[in-house]
């Protein structure tokens, strides 16, 4: 019982700290905005041609990119939420938490859920850009996106928190994060269609856990745009979806992978809290 | 008297480095116990073991009759800590810092409010509680940490170098607050410091060097090991004065530099007699009551500063 209460207290502090940092909230919208506007507009015509039949259903490059950008924000925000633990170390506040009569599981849980909540808020803010790219937003879509962002962010906040637990400096954390985030981001299909890519790259895309968040996100949006099921089946063909062993990866399979990832990385993160002195 | 902390042959190894080497002591209910030693002597390591943050390599430690190995959670409820370095959330207000603490320690809301009001008044923070902690001065932060450590009515309060890095004036008023809080709450204080003058506020003190307790006694008792007060005497003819004094008193007299050093039990009572015996040949007379500095020097053969310089490399290894 107390463990749940403690998770809540630690979660609340994370949210309070996020809320007090207004420049961060606004600033974090800048990158997705530039990606959408600059890349979206600049590459629209050249990449648009690569997207084959999808164009017939009104899917242009910007609409293709939008779910990818929500995915990107999910990845970046959740991974960087591990910075909170590094800051707590630097400012000494972690000691206060570690000597309290609180189960380490609650500390890990509060931190991870806090990071996930922040990620959900940041992802939701991106819907503000939807009119710019002509994506229709329905309440059902927003709900589904929340569910997906929440599930997807659990694994990556856990990973960020695990890395944060190993490091003592914010600068070091940022370096390690860039090293982890950028390959995942670029090799996910968030940014360009995956047709006609080299075989080695196609392999990496498939082992990249982030690919499946992007894939699920994109399918949610395409469904919401009214893409017929026959077309959904053919998404991998246009590089707009992923296939594993000649089978198209469905949203349900994406979610299964995320659950597995969250459990594995969550366990890793909790264990790293137990090892802290 | 009942012991709240019992430590028996406690050992902590970091790899092949022995940071704490079989220390034993007890802290009684209601006393201020000083733990004095240079940086890297093993003070913080000992505290970490007592709080259940660090597993002892060997030996036993009990707090409020509970073993630190088997009851870490119960022990944490019974202790409060003020750390060597700041441990506040700067982005939260003073009140939020306190409130976060009391919720982690499961204080009922009503008790929480009462305690925050009561304690913040006592250290003069009530009117600043709703400001963010990053606006606080060093002394205010320390006061906030001090009352945070006491918020949940701990049995034992650990003060790990509570005045480190503060200016002398702030140090002294922080100490007034500590004494004031101590007088009102039923609490024992375990204090580590490398400021000699702070140990003098303790009832008893252990002197620790290179992971071992080299002496443990009341502060008076520790000073008595030096054999009493020192009087430095300069006269027109020190040789003649020496002869006269040896004839008159049964005390230890040595030549130190160009002065005479007298080791006596009650310095202030001897001075009038000295002036009578030596009359107007005295040029200067200087009474020196022993401080903890002298005790440390006497026991280890080195000044606490020298010991720190020496142990610097060891400390660095321990931090990693």
Fold and architecture overview:
The complex is a heterodimer of chains A (277) and B (320). By secondary structure, chain A is an all-alpha fold. In chain A, helix 4 runs parallel beside helix 9 and helix 4 runs antiparallel to helix 10. The relative contact order of chain A is 0.15. Helices cover 73% and strands 1% of the residues of chain A. A two-stranded antiparallel sheet of chain A has the order 1-2. Chain B is α/β, with parallel strands linked by helices and 320 residues long. Chain B folds into 2 domains: 218 residues, P-loop containing nucleotide triphosphate hydrolases (Rossmann fold, 3-Layer(aba) Sandwich), CATH 3.40.50.300; 63 residues, 2-Layer Sandwich (Alpha-Beta Plaits), CATH 3.30.70.120. Helix content of chain B is 40%, strand content 28%. Chain B has a 6-stranded mixed beta sheet with strand order 6-7-8-3-9-10, sandwiched between helices. A 4-stranded antiparallel beta sheet of chain B has the order 2-1-4-5, covered by helices on one side. In chain B, helix 3 packs across helix 4 and helix 5 runs parallel beside helix 6. The radius of gyration of chain B is 23 Å and the shape is elongated. The chains are: A mainly alpha (277), B alpha/beta (320).
Task: Detail the topology: elements first, then pairings.
The complex is a heterodimer of chains A (277) and B (320).
Chain A lengths: L1 H19 L1 H6 L2 H19 L12 H20 L2 H8 L2 H6 L5 H22 L4 H4 L5 H28 L3 H17 L12 H9 L1 H16 L4 H5 L9 E2 L2 E2 L2 H24 L3
Helix pairs in contact in A: 1-7, 3-4, 4-7, 4-9, 4-10, 4-12, 5-9, 7-9, 7-14, 9-12, 9-14, 12-14
Chain B lengths: L2 E12 L2 E12 L3 E5 L6 H8 L7 E6 L2 E2 L4 H7 E4 L11 H11 L4 H14 L15 H13 L5 E5 L7 H17 L3 E6 L2 H4 L4 E6 L2 E7 H6 L4 E7 L2 H11 L3 E5 L2 E6 L2 H12 L3 E7 L3 H9 L3 H16 L1
Parallel strand pairs in B: 3-8, 3-9, 6-7, 7-8
Antiparallel strand pairs in B: 1-2, 1-4, 4-5, 9-10, 11-13, 11-14, 12-13
